[in-house]
Amino acid sequence: xxxxxxxxxxxxxxxxxxxxxxxxxxxxxxxxxxxxxxxxxxxxxxxxxxxxxxxxxxxxxxxxxxxxxxxxxxxxxxxxxxxxxxxxxxxxxxxxxxxxxxxxxxxxxxxxxxxxxxxxxxxxxxxxxxxxxxxxxxxxxxxxxxxxxxxxxxxxxxxxxxxxxxxxxxxxxxxxxxxxxxxxxxxxxxxxxxxx
Length: 196
Hints:
The longest helix is centred in the last third of the chain and has 17 residues, at 161-177. This protein has a single domain, classed as Nucleotidyltransferase, domain 5, CATH 3.30.420. It is globular. The protein has helices at residues 2-16, 84-97, 115-123, 142-153, 161-177, 179-188; strands at 19-29, 55-65, 70-78, 102-106, 127-131. It has a five-stranded mixed beta sheet with strand order 3-2-1-4-5, sandwiched between helices. 39% of the residues lie in helices and 21% in strands. It has six helices and five strands. By secondary structure, it is of the alpha/beta class.
């Protein structure tokens, strides 16, 4: 029954020329992420870095155009935590770049709900917000974008926040240019198969 309702929603979205955007936020620390790598036997690589808890925050969204069967990636980077104002700026960014109805799926974070979000939504008639179920990151394809980005940055040693910002931007740009990587993010998620 639920799958039939979702399939009906897909048909309506396709008829209206709507875009579905799966959004998420993630943080990238200046402290390097360590991952397995190759090295000569007996010579374990040593990664020297300064202990600093600075980070770069990203909000991103994979867009699916049902009418044209296109995928896209939109993102914004910040040198601080992402709050309500940054979420609103990102949603306006999406509306500037996507025509027609825009259906955005967010997690249940506090910056995504409340009176401020309702007031924001009332200003943009073609913006529709819906939410993933609680504690279900496996449903969100944008989790794959975060995972790919962190994998690309693994074993790196940025010198400062600006260097980290540049590396995160390069990694996200690389993902944006690859329709295979974007499609892989959707396929690896636990979304119902009719969205693939």
